[in-house]
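**Backbone description:**
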Amino acid sequence: MAYTSEDLRAALKVRLVDNISAALDDVEAIYAATDPIALAEPVTWHEGHNPGVLLMESTEFPFVAVLVGSRRPDRSVKGRAQWGYQEFEPVAWVDYFVVADELATVNKIVHRYARAIVAILQGERYISGCDFYKQVDFEPEVNISEASRHPKIAKANMLVDTEADIDYIQAGRVVVPFEGST
């Protein structure tokens, strides 16, 4: 099989776009009675890595990016048993960034976004349109960054502008290993 990581990334993004609204609503409902926070749907969807994401204005968040970051062939004897057939493991990353006016709120939002994304992934093992890819783990790896101060508008100088010009940003990454074969 040819290199198809771009196809996997596109299919995974479609799954997330199609299901994120309902998944965020489900997570909001879980906390509605104890700690309600509105979870905005992603404003910006991105394919691959965006090195300028921290420079974006707050109105462009939540931001979700999907990237297939690696593809490792099975190099065991089984994996090389027949020329023209080899299993491999692509790894997708779902990176997301959220902002909020309060530090405590941004941390809750980043965790609740992880819960929604994981629920979407757990809803279907195979990627539609890419039948040769299946998720390896029911529980994908989740990594959460530290929160940082963030200028609400691109021109803000975080050292001299007022607190009204600053919010908080926090990122998460859901790591999704897949299995595939040629």
Observations:
- Residues 5-181 form one domain.
- DSSP finds two helices and eight strands in the chain.
- The first helix runs from residue 5 to 31.
